[in-house]
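Support case: zinc ion complex. Customer-provided input:
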Amino acid sequence: MTPTLENVRRYDSALRYQVPSRRPKVEPYLVELDAFNDNGECQCEHFSCRLGPLLRAGLTPEIAFESGLAEVPTWGTLEDCLRCYHIGLARAQFADDVLREIRIRINE
Ligand SMILES: [Zn+2]
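Agent response - structure generated as follows:
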């Protein structure tokens, strides 16, 4: 199943989102948007095994890319090199949520 933003949901705080897996019968992943200096952190295998260790080692997306340790994801930019697909979806939903809240406050 390809997740859509409709089933990416804010979880228990403004910066924590639940994102469905693309694989069937896998529980949704929890994404913390502000972890690793706003890179974000996810519970999925790709992040836990590959991207997280690079961040814990202190690599930036630029260094990881230039060293050949990370690739620019098809859905993102160089800044997304150390983000999994789920973090990308959570950031997109976060932007939608913030825009909606700003629109509501402007119209009050
Ligand atoms: Zn993930």
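The longest strand covers residues 9-13.

Case will auto-close in a few days if no follow-up is received.
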